[in-house]
Structures are given as structure tokens and as C-alpha cells.
Amino acid sequence: MAYSFPDDVLEHVFSFITSDKDRNAVSLVCKSWYEIERWCRRRIFVGNCYAVSPGIVIRRFPDVRSVELKGKPHFADFNLVPDGWGGYVYPWIAEFSRAYPWLEEIRLKRMVVSDESLELISKSFKSFRVLVLSSCEGFSTDGLAAIAANCRNLRELDLRESEIEDLSGHWLSHFPDTFTSLESINMACLGSEVSFSALECLVARSPNLKTLRLNRAVPLDKLSTLLRLAPQLVEFGTGAYSAEIRPDTYSRLAEAFSCCKKLKGLSGFWDVVPSYLPAVYSVCSRLTSLNLSYSPMRSPDITKIISQCHNLQRLWVLDYIEDVGLNALALSCKDLQELRVFPSDPYVVDANVSLTEQGLVSVCKGCPKLQSVLYFCRQMSNSALFAIARNRPNLTCFRLCIIEAQAPDYLTFEPLDAGFGAIVEHCKDLRRLSLSGFLTDRVFEYIGTHANRLEMLSIAFAGDSDLGLHHVLSGCDSLRKLEIRDCPFGDKALLANVAKLETMRSLWMSSCSVSFGACKLLSQMMPRLNVEVIDEQGYSDAEADSCLVEKLYIYRTVAGPRIDMPDFIWTMDQDRAYRLRNRPSS
Amino acid sequence: MDQKRSSLNLFEDIDLNYKATELRLGLPGTDDEPEIKTNLSGNKRSSSEMESSTCTDENESRSAPPTKEQVVGWPPVRSYRRNIVQNGKTKTTSSSEMGSGMYVKVSMDGAPYLRKVDLKMYTSYGELMEGLQKMFKCIIGLYSEREGYNGSQHAPTYEDKDGDWMLVGDVPWEMFIGSCKRLRIMKASEARGLDDHSQ
């Protein structure tokens, strides 16, 4: 074409386009745009590490600087995915170390990361800056030591909620004295004590430090030392917030907090001694994010704090806040966008906290910007759900967990179908929904019909028959992730909606009624899906097709069946189940 | 360390009834361990049981409220969160002491995959051994005071709260699950070292 722009002009234009969706659209315009785009794509996100292989990624995008990978299915968080399932990052790191010498950022979620992988990362990428390991496992503090010792330009090290073999706190001391680029560190999940002097020196020589999330082992009386060295902090997580009550410790701490004029996020507060809480009051008015979900703080103390947080946008808290605290939240925090209330004692039938559906209704009525809710409680009613739906049509994420499975409306004893139906009908932008309580197929009819923007749906102990699942799979135009446990959904609904499965990232079904035969048939019909059956009881070809599978994980992929499965997982293929047995690379 | 073994060497038969003297971790007022079920509708292995699946599910699950039993992964609270809150002194994330599930890692020498077992699923050493044997497809056999696990290729060991590696079966069951941090199925030849250690 005579009138097209030179490549480097196009490349410059493309550099302003950062969203993956838009980048993907750009690449489809024509061959030359595809070529230009792929050479200048710097950031990739792989939502399911088995949907594509490292080789395919590298072939298409030769110069990537930032990678985000996700491994295990979400239900792995609740012990539903057996150990050894997979999600090993080593093969990716090995190939990246050869192909992307300029890689700067690696973000992983629910992946198995070995010390070997961490060592390889630390030695392979000279400009490495960001390492985020979210809900990962498989590594020890030795791996962290390698990162600390070798990543000269590290800016961010975030270990959020990972399960780490904590051999000692010595890893922190491996950051060399010349290392001054640290901007963010989150070590809250580690148990061992780190050398305080090493920590102090690290903070002192990191002028750009914005996020410091300490672990429980850092005592309260040391906090003021750190805060005085880093008054520029934007996010701070305390350790155990308890000490003997001493006026000089208190006043030092209060003074140190008051110097932190930029502090917007606070977390930590394990083991609280309430007398020390007023030390944080001076920062409350500037806080936008508060995470008290690991804190045994009770309602009166929580209320005193949040009543001063007029700019609060995000609150994570335990049910110790109680309805009274949530009422205070509704009055004081008009900018609230996200609320998560976790259960302090999920395994007792009767709560020892006075938190009911009323607290949630209060916040939904009082906080006009509320978009995202995660709420654990012990009773719910359709009328409360109606109130929530009517007041907050702008909800984008609604995850409700009524602790007793299949609990009906506690006022009328009816199913909660109508209540959740109201939610999906009124909240037109709802992207994520988790159901609980007593629910029939009816609720799925509402969801299938109304939830057009819904991307992720979690279902447990709900429904009557295949019709329920069919409603969801035949409706929900935007559905990407569906996870189901203990529901009477089976072959009919799956086989009637096979094409749908390729439009989604993944489907998880455990303790449902899907048979081996249906899995094999599905696999035959849809070659670009991996239909993986997890069965720890054992399976042999001799088993009848009518036997039910324990757990099923189906996902679309361009990489074919995976080869790193343990012996209790099979990819269904053709007329017989086959599995390729290889040890995982790490 | 040696004290542990010697004072409890009184128990030759691991099936002795310890109920009279054992410490319990349950809530006051609860009797024996609640029934453990991994899914609401019971065993789903054969389809004939599931023919009338939907009707029986509904009736079964409504008449037997599941919260009184321990269902795996319900309520959906991450074990990480459970550990921090439940026990103010707990720092480890490798096993939870209260609430639903007591997952400990199990490794077997020579097996490539680490597994996890929920100790609360079992009520005796015999059941635990059966579970482990199924999981790793090996034979462990039963423990005898004098001979340990002699006679089999593998010996189950565990790391206790103090970081010591002990032979499984030494202490009363309740004490075991209270102190077991992780399990390792060793080759019998290596485990013999543990046995001799006590002398």
C-alpha cells in the first residue's frame, strides 16, 4: 500500500496502547500490523499457564519485559486441588532465561516455584526489577536469599500469602550494602525473625521505599525506628502490634506515625494491645486502604479507627467488626469501594460475634461507591439481598458466603433464588459472583438470563439438576471462569454446551455427577480443550464409562495435553484415557 | 527427646483405649470427633448409586445439615488465614491446629510428588497407614514396639513440634496429631537409625 506509515511510526503509536485486549485487536488488523505489534509487545499475561507453552509465547513475542502467569485453579486455595497437581514455573523460567535476557518483571499466582527457579531468575536477568509471588509455594528462604544477593536492580519483592519453607530470617541480610533501589517489600507471610539491624540498614539506604509490609516477628517497639527512617512510606504493614504498655514507647510510635504524611495504606496488627492503637490516629484521615483481616481487634477499637478514616476506599476486616462497626463504616466512609469481611471462627455453628446480614445492608445503603463485596456471615434473607441489589446497582463483584452450606432465607425458609436473582438483574455490570445458601435451579435461570457481563461464577452445594448448569452455560455471554463443587450437575448439561467451553478460560467441577464416559466424549468433540480428570481413588481403563469422576478441570489450550501430571490426573482422549507420564522439571 | 519415647513405651498395642486420659482439642460439649465427610452425597464411585442422584441429594443434604460435619474446603477460607487467626501463637503455615482440616505434608523417599494428608480424616494409626499406603501405593504394615516397622520396605516417620524426627506409632494417637508437623515415609534401612537412637 502506498500510503501506510513507516513501521517505527506505527510502533510509536502502538506504544500508547497498553491493554492486552486492545493490543490483540491491533494485531488482527493486517499482517504488517501483526508483525510490528508482536515485536513491540512488552507485557504479557497468561491466565492459565497450561493454555499456551513458553515456546509459543517466545516465538510470537520475541522481546517481552514483563510476564504474569497464573497456575492452579482458584479452588486450590481451599485444599480442593491435590498436591502435585502442577503449575511448575521452572520450565517457563528456563526458556525465558534463554529468550528474554532483558526481562524485568515476573508476577506469579498459585504456581509452584522452586528455589532453583528463584536462583535462575536471580542469575539470568540483569535488569530484573519486580518479583511478585502471590499464593505460591515450593520454595524456601534460600531462594529468597539468591534473589536478594543477585538482583542488583530489584525494586519490588512481594511474597503475598505464599507458603514458604522458612528456614531462617537470614535471607534479608543477603541484600548487598550497595543495594539501594528497593521500592516495595512484602514479607508478611514469613514467620522467622529477620535481623533487625539488617532490616534497619535496608530501609535506611532505600530512599524510594514506598511499601513496607513487615512480618509478625518484628516487635512493636522497633516500628518507630523504621518509620522515622522512611517517612515517605505510602503503605505500611506492622508486625505484632503488642508490647508492654510504656509511655515512651507509645509516644515514640505516635510521633513516628505522625511524620508519615504520605501514608495511605495500613495493614498487619497481629496480636493487638488496644492501648497502642491511638498511635495511628494521626494517619487515619489520609488512609485509603486498611487491612485488619489478620487482627484480633474488637468492634470498639475497629470502630474508633474507621470513624476517622473518611477517605477509606478499601477495608478488609474480620467479623469482629460486627454490625455496629459496619454501621459506623456506612456513616463515616462515603468513598468506600471495596469491603471484605472474613470469619474469625468459621468452624463453629453459632457465632460469638454479632454480625448479620444487616451490617452488609447498612454499608450497601450508606456507601454510594461500593463496588466490590466479599462477606462471610451466618444468616441471610431474600429481603436483605433485594435491599442490596436496589441500593447498589453499581456492584461489580459480589461474593457472599453463608457459612452453613445450603442455609435458606432465615426469615421465610425459602431458597435464596429470588435474592440472588435481584442481584444479577439490578447489577448490570456484575463481573464476579459467588453464591451460597439454599438455591434451586431457578437461581441459575436468573443468572443465565441477566448476568451478561459476568466473568467468574462460583457455585457450591446448589441446584437440583443439569438444568441449572445448562442455564449458566447457555446464557452468561461473558463467562470466563466457572467453578462448581458438590452440585448435582452432570453429563447432559456439559455435552449440550460443548462449544461454550472453548469460549471460557476454564471450568472446574468437583463432587458433581459427571461420568468418565462424558469426559471422553467431550474430549473427542473438542480437541482444543484439555479435559483433565483428577481421581485419587484410582482409575483404570476397565472402569465403566458410567463411573463418576471425582474432580474435573477443563480448559482451552493451544499447547495440547500437558506432560507434567502426577499419576492421579488423566487427560481424556479418544476412546481411552491416556496419560503421559513425565516428572515435572523442577 | 529420649524421655518422650521411654515414658510412652508402655503402649505396645496402638489400639489401646486412651480416652480416659487423653487430652482433647474439641470444643466443650462436643463428643467424639465429628463425622468426616469429603462430600455431601457420600461415596460417588458407582453410577448406580447416583441414578436417582438429584432427588436423594436434595433430601440427604437438607435433612443432615453439613456444618456439623467437616467438609473439605468449606467454608472457603484459606488455610493461611485460618492459621493466623485461630491460634494467636501459631506461626507456621504448614499445618493448622484447629478448625477444619489438619493438613500435613507427606513425602516418600523416591516419589517425585509431595502430598498432603488431613490428619483429621483418620482416627487411628491403622487408618492413617491405610490411607498412606493407598496414596503412595506401598506397603508399610503395622507398628510393633519391639520391631518397629521391620518386615516392610518403608517406615513412616514424622517431624514433631520440637523438630525431631520420630517413628510414627510411638505416642498415643491424639498426642501424635497434636504434634505432627509433617510426615516422611523413609526407606526402612534409613529408619533403623531412629530406632537405635533411643538406646
Secondary structure layout:
The complex is a heterodimer of chains A (586) and B (199).
Chain A: H1 7-14, H2 20-27, H3 31-40, E1 43-46, H4 54-60, E2 66-70, H5 90-99, E3 105-109, H6 115-124, E4 130-134, E5 137-140, H7 141-150, E6 156-158, E7 163-165, E8 184-186, H8 196-204, E9 211-213, H9 223-229, E10 235-237, H10 247-258, E11 265-267, H11 281-284, E12 289-291, H12 299-306, E13 314-318, H13 322-332, E14 338-342, H14 357-366, E15 372-377, H15 382-391, E16 397-402, H16 417-426, E17 432-434, H17 441-450, E18 456-460, H18 466-474, E19 481-485, H19 491-495, H20 498-501, E20 506-510, H21 516-525, E21 529-534, E22 551-556, E23 569-573, E24 576-578
Parallel strand pairs in A: 1-2, 2-3, 3-4, 4-6, 5-7, 6-8, 8-9, 9-10, 10-11, 11-12, 12-13, 13-14, 14-15, 15-16, 16-17, 17-18, 18-19, 19-20
Antiparallel strand pairs in A: 20-22, 21-22, 21-23, 23-24
Helix pairs in contact in A: 1-3, 5-6, 6-7, 9-10, 12-13, 13-14, 14-15, 15-16, 16-17, 17-18
Chain B: H1 2-7, E1 36-37, H2 47-50, H3 53-63, E2 70-71, H4 79-86, E3 103-108, E4 115-118, H5 125-136, E5 154-159, E6 165-167, H6 173-179, E7 182-187, H7 188-197
Parallel strand pairs in B: 1-2, 3-7
Antiparallel strand pairs in B: 3-4, 5-6, 5-7
